[in-house]
Amino acid sequence: MVDIATRVWNHKWKIDPIVRSLIDTDFYKLLMCQSVFRNKRDTQVSFSLINRTKSVRLAELIDEGELREQLDHIRSLSLSRGESTWLRGNMFYGKRSMFRSDFMEWFENLRLPPYHLEKRDGQYELTFEGAWPEVMLWEIPALAVLMELRGRAVLNDMGRFELQVLYARAMTKLWEKVEGLRAIDNLRIADFGTRRRHSFLWQDWCVQAMTEGLGQSFVGTSNCLIAKNRDLEAIGTNAHELPMVYAALAEDDAALARAPYDVLADWHEEHDGNLRIILPDTYGTQGFLDKAPDWLAGWTGIRIDSGDPAKAAEAAIAWWTARGEDPRNKLVIFSDGLDVENIAALHAQFSGRVRVSFGWGTNLTNDFRGLVPDGGLDAFSLVCKAVSAEGRPTVKLSDNPEKAMGPETEIQRYKRVFGVGEQERIEVVV
Amino acid sequence: MVDIATRVWNHKWKIDPIVRSLIDTDFYKLLMCQSVFRNKRDTQVSFSLINRTKSVRLAELIDEGELREQLDHIRSLSLSRGESTWLRGNMFYGKRSMFRSDFMEWFENLRLPPYHLEKRDGQYELTFEGAWPEVMLWEIPALAVLMELRGRAVLNDMGRFELQVLYARAMTKLWEKVEGLRAIDNLRIADFGTRRRHSFLWQDWCVQAMTEGLGQSFVGTSNCLIAKNRDLEAIGTNAHELPMVYAALAEDDAALARAPYDVLADWHEEHDGNLRIILPDTYGTQGFLDKAPDWLAGWTGIRIDSGDPAKAAEAAIAWWTARGEDPRNKLVIFSDGLDVENIAALHAQFSGRVRVSFGWGTNLTNDFRGLVPDGGLDAFSLVCKAVSAEGRPTVKLSDNPEKAMGPETEIQRYKRVFGVGEQERIEVVV
């Protein structure tokens, strides 16, 4: 086992790479990438880093040279033979050959496209432009690099044993969470913490601790590299970037209103079973459900990623019931702002009424709160999003106006088209 | 750095030796051994293991085969070339060639003598018989083996990450002690925790954490192997076994009364400076000081190892003052039952009045209290003592009747000879 504290302390390498592999990314990025490669291969998009926690002045904490070194290192990566074999041959969601040969051939030859980096107002402007299937693969490694370099800036000044104790405390903290989760009967929970993890080694440790501590209740990780190395299920379905880009490409309001369903129609053709999971909140959950075509009610489940999760789950249950579906057969995946307490509460409220599952992110892989002074290692709200497609801005509304993004005039247009009224504001921590 | 939890978890070795070297022992054993080699080389002694914590039923916890394997392994050890070079060439207490050539030649050829092992009433009877300089070297490794095997019996059933978290918690606990000690100005403290350590790797970790956390306040370790490996001062002077054996050899009451001073007269010939440390409590501190020859008042200091430490230090200060010595030049070393709280209190009471130093043992290297159920890893009071010399029983009174040992009739005789009356009972934890 890697002694994380010693590894952190030992800065002998010219570069200690933060991202070691193109599959050190979320499984759903690869699923979506294959879908985009099939359906929108030539769509030109722009992704951009957005730090929603302005108080964390990244450009003052992270050396630009080091950042470029890490990003350049990622551009040097290509799929290894073993990784390719695993993607081609492994069973994902009960299915072999999840990734088609044409996609794999393209992926095997892929190098990530160039990035554009500038400092502005104490923050980094980091953007990626080009063909959608290439650019989209920057999201997770870019976030992981920024999160980890910010952490290293704090860890750099610590002594070897101070570091040992820091990680000792973090381990203790995580284990106490594991012990809390153990008390929940029939829990199903996965690691969704790649993007905002403290570090790769730490995520790897957390995943292994969950495996030992939770046994069958721990159903897998979204991180492909860790899933491969640790013989775990790779978990994930799809994300907001699909409807956001489809919506941006819509020629008029009618096409815009259809866009979120067009995405899922494409997905419906490619996937079945537990991969048919609706992510309804991009332009407001209630409106999305109200206007959804009937075939969507036949999908396996829903993922709840913003707003009040209990409210959204109740809305989904009411919707399924109204459409003649039995909610008890449906899967509800909670994936927003989770920690032991609300996992337990949501489980208590919905277990038995639906099949409940949790995708646990930042508070699993990056909870160093209270372990160094001034919150120097606290997770913060960093995202890397599609901001335009074919020159048109993207928009996200979600069920929490604090998470909305896009130009104000476009936000207003989307709200009108999707019938989104007043929304409850919920503080975004991570 | 060794990942202790992983090492503990991984039981691939046929034998994972607990004692890896003949110098994995306390420095004072080697100093005393040289003295005994010079003055009482042929004295036949018997050492015996005594578990003062009867509730810990060692013979039920520890497999006899494993115990024999560890003890046999110790008998296979001999001084390595590097260890010999270090003992011969290193500066100890400011002096080179602390160990004379004739002693080193003898030590280089030494293998530890046979042991005798039996089970009785849920305990192990473990005895060593033979020439004093050989037998005495069993004390520390025998204790370390029993302590660690008892720990392993508990750790064996734990998972890999459960172990990681156990050690994470122990590290956090120790670091909090380090932070507590850091607040004490002009502290001088050494590791005296070899004999009752949780394990070798853990002692090594604790020593390194003290080095980083306390800087100049951490003055060294009693463990020779760790001192050598970590480039630290080896610390220690002498122990009760010298007066106990000298006393047992005394032909009559008058010789008995002289014995504790005869020991120090021999020591006086060999050592000076900070090695001239009185250990006055073997047959009662007050009586020892009252009857001490004047030349002893000229010694550098005193070590307080039983009874109420503040009372003993006050007695020493009064004694020095009465003998015309300035206590402010004298060293008082506290070494019994220490933890952060009483270290701070003793330092506050005596700093400035005398030179204060601490030899911190069990609560440094073996404080796992509260970390596993039922106190399964709590330290307990195990000793390995000279019980007879030339067929005569040894006796120890100390300043706490709970620590007294020897046949009752002999205890009464010693009390009479040394003028020891009622003593305050203090619970012996470790």
UniProtKB/TrEMBL annotation, chains A, B:
<dbReference type="InterPro" id="IPR040727">
    <property type="entry name" value="NAPRTase_N"/>
</dbReference>
<keyword id="KW-0328">Glycosyltransferase</keyword>
<dbReference type="GO" id="GO:0016757">
    <property type="term" value="F:glycosyltransferase activity"/>
</dbReference>
<dbReference type="GO" id="GO:0004516">
    <property type="term" value="F:nicotinate phosphoribosyltransferase activity"/>
</dbReference>
<dbReference type="InterPro" id="IPR041525">
    <property type="entry name" value="N/Namide_PRibTrfase"/>
</dbReference>
<keyword id="KW-0597">Phosphoprotein</keyword>
<keyword id="KW-0662">Pyridine nucleotide biosynthesis</keyword>
<dbReference type="Pfam" id="PF04095">
    <property type="entry name" value="NAPRTase"/>
</dbReference>
<protein>
    <recommendedName>
        <fullName>Nicotinate phosphoribosyltransferase</fullName>
        <ecNumber>6.3.4.21</ecNumber>
    </recommendedName>
</protein>
<dbReference type="InterPro" id="IPR036068">
    <property type="entry name" value="Nicotinate_pribotase-like_C"/>
</dbReference>
<dbReference type="GO" id="GO:0005829">
    <property type="term" value="C:cytosol"/>
</dbReference>
<comment type="pathway">
    <text>Cofactor biosynthesis; NAD(+) biosynthesis; nicotinate D-ribonucleotide from nicotinate: step 1/1.</text>
</comment>
<keyword id="KW-0436">Ligase</keyword>
<dbReference type="InterPro" id="IPR007229">
    <property type="entry name" value="Nic_PRibTrfase-Fam"/>
</dbReference>
<keyword id="KW-0808">Transferase</keyword>
<comment type="function">
    <text>Catalyzes the synthesis of beta-nicotinate D-ribonucleotide from nicotinate and 5-phospho-D-ribose 1-phosphate at the expense of ATP.</text>
</comment>
<dbReference type="InterPro" id="IPR006406">
    <property type="entry name" value="Nic_PRibTrfase"/>
</dbReference>
<dbReference type="Pfam" id="PF17767">
    <property type="entry name" value="NAPRTase_N"/>
</dbReference>
<feature type="domain" description="Nicotinate phosphoribosyltransferase N-terminal">
    <location>
        <begin position="23"/>
        <end position="146"/>
    </location>
</feature>
<comment type="similarity">
    <text>Belongs to the NAPRTase family.</text>
</comment>
<feature type="modified residue" description="Phosphohistidine; by autocatalysis">
    <location>
        <position position="240"/>
    </location>
</feature>
<dbReference type="GO" id="GO:0034355">
    <property type="term" value="P:NAD+ biosynthetic process via the salvage pathway"/>
</dbReference>
<feature type="domain" description="Nicotinate/nicotinamide phosphoribosyltransferase">
    <location>
        <begin position="188"/>
        <end position="421"/>
    </location>
</feature>
